[in-house]
Batch of 2 targets.
Target 1
Amino acid sequence: MTHDFARVRGRSTSRLRGVVLTVAAGAVAIGAAITFSGTADAATTLGASAAASGRYFGTAVAAYKLSDATYLGILSREFTMVTPENEMKWDATEPSQNTFSYANADRIVAQAVSQGARVRGHALAWHQQQPGWAQSLSGTALRSAMLNHVTQVATHYRGQIYAWDVVNEAFADGGSGARRDSNLQQTGNDWIEAAFRAARAADPAAKLCYNDYNTDGQNAKSNAVYAMVQDFKTRGVPIDCVGFQSHFNSASPVPSDYQANLQRFAALGVEVQITELDIEGSGTAQADSYTRVTQACLNVAQCAGITVWGIRDTDSWRASGTPLLFDGSGNKKAAYTSTLNTLNGAGTSVPPTTTPPVTTPPTTPPVTTPPPSGGACSAALSANAWTGGFVITVKVTAGASAVSTWSVALTLPSGSALTNAWNAQATGSSGAVQFANVSYNGRIAAGGSTEFGFQGTGTPPTAVSGCTASLA
Ligand code: G2I
């Protein structure tokens, strides 16, 4: 099977640098008068710049390139979300029926964890890159095999995935608005919702996305996806996000209604994500297109982040179109600079509203601890909990001065355990735990904020016990 994009796609300067102030939640402990001037520097990496508005900036990653020092250097410096380019696909993870192969995907997940990035899982059910044994199945046998695949893979990565592309590219191109005719579609029109239900049961904390291409503007195909998402929301089929691949070139430029299209999906109550961005071209034209896409995401509160489909042009699935942000030598292109600058203009944009990734209503209402005024930093916690587990988002806010490092302390209830964290380095997994900044989010401008999160089993904590920071 081939992929047809041809048609539509086509400082503050402080004299007290290093001073550490500790502020207990709800109680202010601040030293004598400290004076500051100036404002924080703009962030200098894609990930840090996106984090300033609560978003991520990701890339597709190939496991076999992790031994390339240039590649690994850019990956770990710039990106806060990682998508395995091929390693989580059906042919890679289940080469023989019921025999699972996770080594390459696990390497990518381990790299993501080591650099404090999150992972987008891609993809559980797709008509392409199916193993031969699945291609030869049909009907009930294929349906069962597909659902078993979804269950097994989502279970293997339970608690480690920010969002799964549960179903990829299930709609036909062109004006029909029909489902793509595939072996999966032939198992019955309800195959998509069956896949989403299986994924939710296997990993209740992962956001579940539908992902497609040629749906980046309003057209017959995106209208059909829209109708499906609306229907799923109405009937309670678990779906949390829609991925817009955003593969662009001169034949298929960034649609004029790109932002409006993202916004209309967001209005359905799903998060929107730009999942596979690449834009063929060079120079200013390419840079301007990247600006448009980036600004569109920043302008839509529910746009959680942007993932580019590879690091250097030479890493791209369509390398000849030089569609990425770094050249073959790993140098930053004009498109990189325009993207970074656009992200850095985002300081005042509204952070995305997150959809609770849970099937059952939260058993613990969101709890916040009031930010202590005048402290070095404060931290506010919100919880989404379900029977047996929870996801916590913590907003760390700098006080009247910029900070360069921070740490948040809290105590997990007895019997609860931390399973993983993102945008922070965790110490401890039960009882008293601490979360320190990672390389790209230590610096917070005066009055600014950043977010990190963690996941655990048992019952959620309801408050932070303190926030400590070094002044910048
Ligand atoms: O086609 C671009 C993307 C469209 N949306 C879904 C994505 O999953 C898709 O990614 C591409 C990968 O970038 C390619 O790397 O999916 C292709 C397969 O449909 C990937 O190509 C495959 C080649 O077809 C294989 O021959 C090769 O063994 O990559 C494999 C690993 O390099």
Target 2
Amino acid sequence: MGLGSDMYRQQILDHYKNPRNYGELEDPDFTHVGENPSCGDTIKLEVELDDEGETIETVSFTGDGCAISMASASMLSDQLHGMTVEELDSLDTDDITEMLGVDISPMRIKCAVLGRQVAQDGAKIHRGELDPDATRTQE
Ligand code: FES
């Protein structure tokens, strides 16, 4: 996996074993499911926004995937609380590798960014800026 530091590796394992915000919301503003096409692993993310629809209030996710994808989704779900939808839009791959704190091999980048992709696609679909059929959406 190209994991660099013990501390970060511990953190990734901890998030993998004890994922934060794991589960489903009662009344999400949007729900989106995305898949890593290279392995078929999926993540479902649910988001509740504030009344203005600008700030993320609550996030939960479920998923079936490798340690990196699940740990990354778990860490991201923590970070998304209180984030504006604009800030979510601007999260890039570097933000995710920085969050994970380890070197991610090119093979595993798709695992690392799956949660972010699901969140960004979900938000875009919610705003009517992305055709759900253009993504690998599934129930
Ligand atoms: Fe499937 Fe990592 S191997 S998301």
